[in-house]
Amino acid sequence: MASNAATTINPQEASHFGTLAADWWNPNGSSAMLHKLNPVRLGYVRQAIDTHWHGDPRALRPLAGKKALDVGCGAGLLAEPLARMGAEVMAIDAAPENIEAAKAHATRQGLAIDYRATGIESLGCKGVFDLVTSMEVIEHVTEPLLFARGLAEALAPGGLLILSTPNRTPASRLAMITLGEGLGMIPKGTHDWDKFLTPEELEALLAEAGLKIVDRRGIAFTPGKGLTLSDNEALNYIVTARAA
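The chain above was modelled as a monomer; its predicted structure follows.
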Protein backbone atom coordinates (compact mmCIF):
# COMPACT_ATOMS: atom_id res chain seq x y z
CA MET A 1 0.00 0.00 0.00
CA ALA A 2 2.85 2.42 0.71
CA SER A 3 3.92 2.65 -2.92
CA ASN A 4 0.38 3.46 -4.05
CA ALA A 5 0.38 6.62 -1.93
CA ALA A 6 3.09 8.11 -4.15
CA THR A 7 1.47 7.48 -7.52
CA THR A 8 -1.94 7.32 -9.13
CA ILE A 9 -0.72 5.12 -11.97
CA ASN A 10 -1.90 1.52 -12.06
CA PRO A 11 0.71 -0.33 -14.19
CA GLN A 12 -1.80 -2.95 -15.33
CA GLU A 13 -4.22 -0.24 -16.49
CA ALA A 14 -1.43 1.67 -18.28
CA SER A 15 -0.33 -1.52 -20.01
CA HIS A 16 -3.89 -2.33 -21.07
CA PHE A 17 -4.45 1.06 -22.67
CA GLY A 18 -0.95 1.10 -24.13
CA THR A 19 -1.79 -1.97 -26.18
CA LEU A 20 -4.64 0.00 -27.80
CA ALA A 21 -2.46 2.97 -28.81
CA ALA A 22 -1.87 2.09 -32.45
CA ASP A 23 -5.60 1.72 -33.09
CA TRP A 24 -6.73 4.73 -31.01
CA TRP A 25 -7.58 7.00 -33.95
CA ASN A 26 -9.51 4.33 -35.87
CA PRO A 27 -13.21 5.25 -35.42
CA ASN A 28 -14.18 1.66 -36.15
CA GLY A 29 -11.46 0.04 -34.07
CA SER A 30 -10.97 -0.82 -30.40
CA SER A 31 -11.61 2.80 -29.36
CA ALA A 32 -14.83 3.13 -31.39
CA MET A 33 -16.87 3.86 -28.25
CA LEU A 34 -14.58 6.77 -27.37
CA HIS A 35 -15.09 8.20 -30.85
CA LYS A 36 -18.85 8.08 -30.27
CA LEU A 37 -18.46 9.63 -26.82
CA ASN A 38 -16.04 12.40 -27.78
CA PRO A 39 -18.50 14.70 -29.64
CA VAL A 40 -20.83 14.63 -26.61
CA ARG A 41 -17.98 15.50 -24.27
CA LEU A 42 -16.77 18.25 -26.61
CA GLY A 43 -20.24 19.78 -26.75
CA TYR A 44 -20.30 19.91 -22.96
CA VAL A 45 -16.77 21.34 -22.78
CA ARG A 46 -17.69 24.11 -25.20
CA GLN A 47 -20.80 25.05 -23.21
CA ALA A 48 -18.86 24.98 -19.97
CA ILE A 49 -16.02 27.22 -21.12
CA ASP A 50 -18.39 29.70 -22.76
CA THR A 51 -20.40 29.89 -19.54
CA HIS A 52 -17.36 30.13 -17.28
CA TRP A 53 -15.55 32.81 -19.28
CA HIS A 54 -18.65 34.49 -20.73
CA GLY A 55 -17.48 33.66 -24.24
CA ASP A 56 -19.18 34.02 -27.60
CA PRO A 57 -20.62 30.61 -28.63
CA ARG A 58 -19.81 31.48 -32.25
CA ALA A 59 -16.11 32.09 -31.62
CA LEU A 60 -13.80 29.61 -33.33
CA ARG A 61 -11.00 29.90 -30.75
CA PRO A 62 -12.70 30.34 -27.37
CA LEU A 63 -9.60 29.14 -25.51
CA ALA A 64 -7.18 31.58 -27.15
CA GLY A 65 -4.70 32.87 -24.58
CA LYS A 66 -5.53 30.09 -22.11
CA LYS A 67 -3.56 27.06 -20.96
CA ALA A 68 -5.25 23.65 -20.89
CA LEU A 69 -4.20 20.32 -19.42
CA ASP A 70 -5.77 17.01 -20.49
CA VAL A 71 -5.09 14.27 -17.95
CA GLY A 72 -5.25 10.69 -19.18
CA CYS A 73 -5.20 11.91 -22.77
CA GLY A 74 -4.85 8.58 -24.56
CA ALA A 75 -3.72 9.33 -28.10
CA GLY A 76 -5.18 12.85 -28.12
CA LEU A 77 -8.89 12.62 -28.95
CA LEU A 78 -9.69 15.57 -26.68
CA ALA A 79 -6.31 17.32 -26.60
CA GLU A 80 -6.38 18.05 -30.33
CA PRO A 81 -9.79 19.80 -30.28
CA LEU A 82 -8.64 21.84 -27.26
CA ALA A 83 -5.64 22.99 -29.29
CA ARG A 84 -7.88 23.85 -32.23
CA MET A 85 -9.99 25.95 -29.85
CA GLY A 86 -6.89 28.06 -29.30
CA ALA A 87 -5.51 26.69 -26.04
CA GLU A 88 -1.85 26.11 -25.28
CA VAL A 89 -2.23 22.41 -24.48
CA MET A 90 -0.27 20.02 -22.33
CA ALA A 91 -1.57 16.44 -22.26
CA ILE A 92 -0.39 13.57 -20.08
CA ASP A 93 -0.97 9.83 -19.97
CA ALA A 94 0.38 6.90 -17.97
CA ALA A 95 1.05 4.81 -21.10
CA PRO A 96 4.15 5.86 -23.11
CA GLU A 97 2.68 4.08 -26.15
CA ASN A 98 -0.30 6.42 -26.08
CA ILE A 99 1.95 9.47 -25.88
CA GLU A 100 3.99 8.34 -28.87
CA ALA A 101 0.81 7.74 -30.90
CA ALA A 102 -0.53 11.13 -29.79
CA LYS A 103 2.66 12.94 -30.79
CA ALA A 104 2.70 11.31 -34.21
CA HIS A 105 -0.95 12.14 -34.89
CA ALA A 106 -0.61 15.76 -33.71
CA THR A 107 2.42 16.23 -35.96
CA ARG A 108 0.44 15.02 -38.96
CA GLN A 109 -2.31 17.49 -38.04
CA GLY A 110 0.14 20.37 -37.66
CA LEU A 111 -0.75 20.81 -33.97
CA ALA A 112 1.76 21.78 -31.29
CA ILE A 113 0.78 19.89 -28.14
CA ASP A 114 3.10 19.24 -25.20
CA TYR A 115 2.59 15.51 -24.63
CA ARG A 116 4.18 13.83 -21.60
CA ALA A 117 4.14 10.27 -20.24
CA THR A 118 3.58 10.92 -16.54
CA GLY A 119 1.01 10.93 -13.76
CA ILE A 120 -0.69 14.08 -12.49
CA GLU A 121 1.02 13.78 -9.09
CA SER A 122 4.46 13.95 -10.78
CA LEU A 123 3.74 16.85 -13.13
CA GLY A 124 4.89 19.68 -10.88
CA CYS A 125 2.75 22.36 -12.55
CA LYS A 126 0.86 23.93 -9.67
CA GLY A 127 -1.58 26.74 -10.40
CA VAL A 128 -0.75 26.80 -14.12
CA PHE A 129 -3.79 25.76 -16.14
CA ASP A 130 -6.97 27.71 -16.84
CA LEU A 131 -8.71 24.49 -17.93
CA VAL A 132 -8.06 20.95 -16.73
CA THR A 133 -9.91 18.05 -18.34
CA SER A 134 -9.93 14.38 -17.41
CA MET A 135 -12.33 12.07 -19.22
CA GLU A 136 -12.98 8.47 -18.14
CA VAL A 137 -9.76 8.36 -16.10
CA ILE A 138 -10.44 8.61 -12.37
CA GLU A 139 -11.97 5.12 -12.34
CA HIS A 140 -8.63 3.70 -13.54
CA VAL A 141 -6.25 5.22 -10.98
CA THR A 142 -4.87 3.67 -7.79
CA GLU A 143 -5.60 6.62 -5.50
CA PRO A 144 -8.64 8.70 -6.55
CA LEU A 145 -8.11 11.31 -3.82
CA LEU A 146 -4.44 11.83 -4.72
CA PHE A 147 -5.56 12.12 -8.34
CA ALA A 148 -8.25 14.68 -7.49
CA ARG A 149 -5.76 16.71 -5.47
CA GLY A 150 -3.39 16.70 -8.43
CA LEU A 151 -6.14 18.02 -10.70
CA ALA A 152 -6.99 20.74 -8.17
CA GLU A 153 -3.37 21.79 -7.73
CA ALA A 154 -2.86 22.14 -11.48
CA LEU A 155 -5.69 24.68 -11.78
CA ALA A 156 -4.83 28.36 -12.02
CA PRO A 157 -6.86 30.81 -9.89
CA GLY A 158 -10.31 31.06 -11.46
CA GLY A 159 -9.68 27.90 -13.46
CA LEU A 160 -12.17 25.24 -14.50
CA LEU A 161 -12.06 21.45 -14.15
CA ILE A 162 -14.16 19.23 -16.42
CA LEU A 163 -14.28 15.54 -15.57
CA SER A 164 -16.37 12.60 -16.76
CA THR A 165 -16.65 9.07 -15.39
CA PRO A 166 -19.03 6.08 -15.40
CA ASN A 167 -21.59 5.82 -12.61
CA ARG A 168 -21.63 2.69 -10.44
CA THR A 169 -25.11 1.37 -11.12
CA PRO A 170 -26.62 -1.93 -12.28
CA ALA A 171 -27.29 -0.22 -15.64
CA SER A 172 -23.61 0.65 -16.15
CA ARG A 173 -22.52 -2.87 -15.25
CA LEU A 174 -24.94 -4.30 -17.81
CA ALA A 175 -24.20 -1.81 -20.58
CA MET A 176 -20.45 -1.34 -20.23
CA ILE A 177 -19.20 -4.69 -18.95
CA THR A 178 -21.75 -7.45 -19.56
CA LEU A 179 -22.74 -6.18 -23.02
CA GLY A 180 -19.99 -3.72 -24.00
CA GLU A 181 -17.01 -5.87 -23.09
CA GLY A 182 -18.85 -9.17 -23.45
CA LEU A 183 -19.84 -8.46 -27.06
CA GLY A 184 -16.51 -6.89 -28.00
CA MET A 185 -17.72 -3.29 -28.38
CA ILE A 186 -15.27 -2.30 -25.64
CA PRO A 187 -11.92 -4.10 -25.18
CA LYS A 188 -12.25 -6.78 -22.51
CA GLY A 189 -10.70 -5.79 -19.19
CA THR A 190 -11.17 -2.04 -19.74
CA HIS A 191 -13.45 -1.54 -16.74
CA ASP A 192 -13.57 -2.55 -13.09
CA TRP A 193 -17.15 -1.78 -12.04
CA ASP A 194 -16.19 -1.68 -8.37
CA LYS A 195 -13.97 1.35 -9.09
CA PHE A 196 -16.77 3.38 -10.66
CA LEU A 197 -17.80 6.41 -8.61
CA THR A 198 -21.33 7.59 -7.95
CA PRO A 199 -21.93 11.35 -8.37
CA GLU A 200 -22.17 11.70 -4.60
CA GLU A 201 -18.86 9.91 -4.09
CA LEU A 202 -17.15 12.06 -6.72
CA GLU A 203 -18.58 15.24 -5.21
CA ALA A 204 -17.21 14.28 -1.79
CA LEU A 205 -13.83 13.37 -3.28
CA LEU A 206 -13.51 16.65 -5.14
CA ALA A 207 -14.64 18.57 -2.06
CA GLU A 208 -11.85 16.95 -0.06
CA ALA A 209 -9.45 18.14 -2.78
CA GLY A 210 -10.77 21.69 -2.43
CA LEU A 211 -13.12 21.71 -5.43
CA LYS A 212 -16.84 22.38 -5.75
CA ILE A 213 -19.00 20.91 -8.52
CA VAL A 214 -20.95 23.70 -10.22
CA ASP A 215 -22.66 21.67 -12.96
CA ARG A 216 -23.41 18.01 -13.63
CA ARG A 217 -25.03 16.24 -16.58
CA GLY A 218 -25.63 12.63 -17.46
CA ILE A 219 -24.43 11.02 -20.67
CA ALA A 220 -27.08 8.57 -21.80
CA PHE A 221 -27.74 6.28 -24.75
CA THR A 222 -30.97 6.18 -26.73
CA PRO A 223 -31.53 3.99 -29.80
CA GLY A 224 -32.63 6.96 -31.92
CA LYS A 225 -29.96 9.47 -30.96
CA GLY A 226 -27.05 7.40 -29.64
CA LEU A 227 -25.03 9.05 -26.87
CA THR A 228 -26.36 12.43 -25.71
CA LEU A 229 -26.22 14.81 -22.76
CA SER A 230 -29.13 13.95 -20.51
CA ASP A 231 -30.63 14.21 -17.04
CA ASN A 232 -30.15 10.43 -16.86
CA GLU A 233 -26.87 9.72 -15.02
CA ALA A 234 -27.27 5.94 -14.79
CA LEU A 235 -24.46 5.14 -17.25
CA ASN A 236 -22.08 8.05 -17.24
CA TYR A 237 -21.90 11.68 -16.15
CA ILE A 238 -19.76 14.76 -16.66
CA VAL A 239 -19.12 17.60 -14.24
CA THR A 240 -17.55 21.03 -14.06
CA ALA A 241 -15.85 22.12 -10.86
CA ARG A 242 -13.81 25.02 -9.58
CA ALA A 243 -12.01 25.93 -6.39
CA ALA A 244 -14.36 25.85 -3.42
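Strands lie at 67-71, 88-93, 114-117, 129-135, 155-166, 211-222, 226-230, 236-243.
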